[in-house]
Each structure stands twice: as structure tokens, then as C-alpha cells.
Amino acid sequence: MPDVTEKGLTAAEVRDRVERGQTNEVKSSTSRSLADIVRANVFTLFNGIIFTAMVMVLITGSWKDAVFGLVILINTGIGIVTELRAKRTLDKLSILIASDYLVRRDGKDVDVPHNGIVLGDCLWIRSGEQIPCDAEILHTWGLELDESMITGESRTVRKQEGETVYSGSTAVSGMALVKVTAVGAHSYAATLTAQAKVYKKNVSDLNKGINTILKFMTFLVVPLCMLLIVTQMRTVGGWHNAIATGEWRQAVVSSVAGVVGMVPEGLVLLTSLNFALAAIRLARKNTLVQDLDSVETLARVDALNLDKTGTITDGGIVYDDFIALPGCRNKQHAMQALYDLANEESPNGTGRAVLEGLGKQGFSGSAGLVRVPFSSARKWSAVAFHGLPDEGQNGVWYMGAPEVLLSGFDGEYQQILAQVNEYANNGNRVLLIAHVPGGDVPADFETNPQLERTAVPVAIVLCSEHIRSDAEPTLRWFREQGVRCRVISGDNPVTVGAIAAKVQLTGERKPVAMDARELPKNVDELARVLEGVDVLGRVLPEQKKAIVQALHTQDHVVAMTGDGVNDALAIKEADLGIAMGNAAPATKAVAEVVLVDSKFSHLPDVVARGRQVMANMERVASLFVTKTAYSALISLGVVLMGIPFPYLPRHISYIGALTIGAPAFFLALAPNTRRYIPGFLRRVVAFSVPCGIATGLSVLLSAWFIPRFMHWNVFTSEQQLFWLRSMCATVLFLMGIYVLSRVSKPLNSWRGWLVLAFAAAGVIGACIPFIARFFAFGLPAGRAVWILLLQMAVATVLFVISIWVFSRFLPKWMREAGRETGINGASHNTNG
User: Fold this and answer.
1) Is 66 inside a domain boundary?
2) For 482-500, how does the pLDDT look when each residue is reduced to its tens digit (9 = 90+)?
3) If you count DSSP H runs as helices and E runs as strands, how many of each does the chain have, helices first?
4) Looking at 205, 291, 307, 563, which residue is catalytic?
5) Is the residue at 59 inside a domain?
6) Measured distance CA(358)–CA(319) in Å, rounded
7) pTM reported for the whole predicted model
8) Which of 238, 349, 387, 587 makes an SS bond possible with 317, Cβ 3.0 to 4.6 Å?
């Protein structure tokens, strides 16, 4: 270590700071405990309704009618496991890499753990180490930092004495002795972490619609259940007789049949399963979904904010070209000098790119040279040769920023500056090579390096950020899909704009670039400015978050990609955060989607999967809400007509499984790339209400029709109820197949066979004695067959007429939504 006069803190001062809590330890916890997660998933409105209904049935002793309760365990388990995964990820969130650091205490250098650093410590920062806390530089020996994870600026930065270094930065070369100014929760990285770790529950459009349905059903379930119990008690001779004879059990089971039918329990379960399956499919393409609800969010995204480094570019620098100027006497000598200039002990990214590019052309390092390393203060480096056989190679060679070098040379170089600016405006990193011929090296060349005014510019060197090969086609895909893409970066806006033009961010139109330092702070004004801007440079982390918030005020659904800590807050704020696989741990932890192999080209796959989920779940939701609609109507009709409930809970479990649950599973997995259209719930209601009313009227008519045309005197009252419910359940099954066929259109594909298969499965199942006994189905015989066939024909006609009538007398918004969903016979837009 270099000799320094600083003694550092004494042991007593360290103990005092530890007692005050001024250590670098950061307490790690999320805003939701395990108990909170379990409570949130167990005590839901849906679970409460189903659990109460299940308990009521179990009290009666009819466990066969309580099988619907299993959905609670499955759905709750999926929810808890998903959120526990999110909690575990957040708990592990740490921007800083925990390791030992070298500090100076009592005049000696000692190793202390990350959490052992205290406020005021003298800390050594060495090449390759990540800075654990904020500090001020006391002495530096060529310290160069990579601050890209903090600022978004991809270039490395040389630090000088008195400057501040922030936690989360990484030393790429040199070393420094710094004084710690902020530790623990007060450091910059910890502040970002604390904001990123706040728990955010994403609620998808699907779940919003489902929750709305459940809330609406709450107002119907409780009063209807009470009315059903009263009605069913009357059908068995009143309360006194029901309790005395035990008929109350059947009355309760009948009431629960109406309640269970009104709750779309399978829809909640199938939504969770569909999200999980979509996540598994995406995982096979190296895309990790950390929040299942986010699978469908990209289907709704209309604004995609892209971080340049790590998304459009891979963060690497490539050597592009060597352009000889009129002052270049020997191109080979100049290229050799360029190699030697870049060949420092710890070259930066640009230097490494030059070495790799020229190395492929056969160049290697020279011996016997004198070096002046690059300095961010000077903005140039130099090497000097003397005594070489070829006189043209001797002398001093400079490499650095063109505007700095040219300003220190004698002569007029406006034409070269214009040429440099043109290259820079095209997204290139431009370096200038200059030469002072001669065999002598100034005596103070290393100790007091100066620009020789007689130097002559000999070449322009072009480097650029490496653009991902998949960037342009992926951006073209989003452009064709109507998604507005913006590039938001910490780099120079001119450079970023040029790169955006190269990948055709805006197609044939030149992207509009702007310096973020000129952005208004007012959210509404910012939103207006953003409408006309495609590229933003010099963006601070807080501004990235503000940009997302401004887009939200215009009702945009925003996705944000990134890889640095500076992107974490914006990714957290966005509707969908997307992190690259090589991103900082903090960024990956708060993102909903992680592209494991950092390939931007996976995003269309995510969009397609989201669209599949949204379009197919809309189709599936129409099935479940139809059941809710006809169950509510049948329950109301039973209350008004004072008749026994026309089917049992086990009937609705059997019919629902074959006409809704199992078919819905297959329909949910079908290919479908329909672009998302706002109004999910509106379209579902527009389809389901007419179908539900038609189905409910058909079943109620059957409950009234059948007893008047059958010879009930040959049956006991219990047998009469058994046959009535069996026949009404058969009619309900037929209506369910009709609804399934409407939802599954077009039927001239595998969907037609799907409908036929489940129709056949229902009939065959009812003919199997064990299944018939378990689900209380009776096969009609004799006159009952003809009555059932007649009623089914009447129900079919009634169903068709009801659909026709309701499709013309519904409110205007429902008719318009119906045209989108297929209520008038049109099929869902699908590729399947």
C-alpha cells in the first residue's frame, strides 16, 4: 500500500460509532411477513363464500355435495407459493456485494467485514472492489470507477481528490483512500434498495374483472341464500316439519346448490393455473416470470421504455475504423502507436476494444517506450519512442478527446472538428491520434506531461457500443404492433439518438432526442413533452421513475426494461418491469420478468404469451360468468315460484366440470394472438348475461313443465324429487353444451371435436352405474324419455329465441360488446 499520513479512527472511536448504530449494516425485510401472505390468500371473499357453503353442506352429512370445496385448497396454495417466491426474492435483495474491506485504523490497515465499516472510517478502494458505502476521496492513485449501475452512464469515470464516490460503484482500475461519509441505510445504494423493496401487488386486468364479479355476487349471495333456505323449508312442510323429519338437511343442500353455482370458483383457479403454465412455457425460452399476474400485462402495454445499455446495446465497445488524416505519413506507424497508447496496465473499455481490434490485425505491444497514462483531467494519454530504426516512428504520440487535443495544437482544424462532430452525431466514440516527430523525448515527459503545440493530427479512431443483433427486428415488431418505444439512458442524448436511429427505433423517421436535464418537473407538463420525444439522455434514476409516472397520467400501460441499479425505481414503478439476466441483483429482484440470457428478442414471446392468456381467458370467463348468471336467475325463480331447487350441488359439479371446467382448460391453452382490446369485463358480461338468462329460463321451465306431464303418483315424494332433479340437470347439461359450442367457435377445427367429446363424456358418464349413483343421476325410462326429449326440444327452441331477443333488446353498450365477443354468432378472433 502507498504511504499515507492518515491514521484513521482509533479503537475507541470505532466502539463509539458502533454503539451509536453508525455501522454499514442494513436491516433486510419486506413489508409483508409470512403471516401477512397467508392471511391475504386464505381470508378472501371467494374463500369465505365457498368455505361457508362447504361447511353448511358438511353439517348436513352430505359430503358428496361438498367436493366443490377442494378448489379452496388448490387456489390458496397457488397464491401462497407465488407470493412466498416474491418475498424470498425481495428478502435477498442487495445492491452491494458483501465481502471484506481494508480500512485504516490506528495507523494500521486491517480487514473488516462489510457490516463492520463505520462512519468516518478511512477505507481503501482497490481495483475490482465494489464500493460498500458513500465516501469522499482523500488520495487517489488513478482510481477509475464504473458507475453504470448507479448513473446509467456506460463510460468509466476517473475520480479526483475531494470528489464523492457512491456505494454500488465498482473500481475498474487504480486505487484510492477514502473517508466514509454515509453508511448503512443512509448510503445511496441502500436508499435505492429501500425504495425498491416496498412490496407492490400487481393486479391484472383479468383479476380485476374477476374481483368485480365476486364483489357483485356478494350482494346477491347472502340475501338469495337466506331466501332459498326459507323457500326450501316451505317445500318440505315448513320449519317445524323440516327439523322434526330431518328434511332440513335436503333444504340446506338445495340452497347451497344455488349459492355454489353463482360463484365462478373454477375461473379463479383456472386463471392462476393458466398464469402458471404460461410462466413455465416462458421459462423454457429463458424468460423468468417472477409475478404470475404479470404474464398478461404485456398484452396491454402501449408504451415500452428501453434502457440503452444492456437492452439495445450489450455494454461492450467495439473498434470500428481507423481513418488516416492528411497529416499521416505512415498509416502502419500510426496504428502501431494507437495499439501502444491503448496498451495500458488497466485499459478502459475503449482501450480494450482497440487492443482487440488491432490485435486481430497482427499488432502487438512495442518495447522501449515511455508512457503517460490516460487522465480524465487531461482527457489524453501519450507514448514516446526514441532510437527506433525507422525515424518516422520516433517522437511523441498522443491519443485523446479531439476537441481537447486540437485546442492545444497550433493551426486551424475546423474541418477536422466538423468531421469529428459528424462521426459523433452518428453514435460513434471518436478519438484523435496526433504525432510530434523527432528522436528526443522531453526530460520531464512523465513527471510534467504537456501537449506539444507542434503536434500534427494524423488519424481519427472510431469506436462504438456493440448493438445487439436482435434489437432492430424486435423494435420493428413492437412498432408494427402499435407499441410506442422510447430509449431512456444516462448517456449523451446525441449518442443515444444516433444508436436509436441505427436500430430504426421510429422506422424511417429520425428519432427526436432530448437532454433530460431540460425536462419539466411538473408531471402533467412532462407527460405532454414525452408525447413528442423518442430518446432521452442524461436521465437520472429519479427522472426515470418520474417518466413512468407521467406516462401513467395519460392512461398508458408502461413496461420498462433495464439492467442497472439506476433502472430499479422505474422498473418498480412500471406496470411491467423487465430486467436483463446480467442486471444488478436489485434490478432483477424488483422486476416481474427477467430475460435470463439477456436477449431482447424474447420480448415478443412474452407479448404473445400475454395475449394468449388475455384472449383465451376472456373466452373462458364467458363460460363461468354464464353459470353465475343462470344460477342467480334459477335461484331467484325458485324463490318466487316456491318450488324445490331443480338440481343438487353435485349436479352442478358434474355439469360444470364437463361443460365449463375441463373444456375451459383446453380453450385457455389454445394459440391466440388477438391484440388486447380494453373492456374485458364489459364483453364477458355482454356474452354471458343473454346466455345465462336463456339457460336459466330453460331450466325453470323444465322444473315447472315436467311435474305436470309425468305420472308422479307411482313415485314417493323423494323419488319424485330425484327424477325432477335428474331431468332438470339433463336439460342444464344440454344448455351448457350449447353455450360451450358458442364460446368455442369456429367449430370447423379441433374445437368442434372438443365440444363433441365432452358432450359424449357427459352422456356416457351418466350411463355408468357408479358415476350415476355418486352424482345422483337417474336414466329416464318409458314415458319419461319422451317427456325429457320434448322438454329438451322446447328448451333448445327457448334458448335460441332468448339469445335472439336479448341480442336485440340489450342496452347499446352490451350490443356493441356482443359484436366483439360473438354474441351474434361471430367468433372470437383467434389463430387457433
Assistant:
1) no
2) 889 999 987 778 888 888 9
3) 29, 21
4) 307
5) no
6) 8
7) 0.64
8) 349
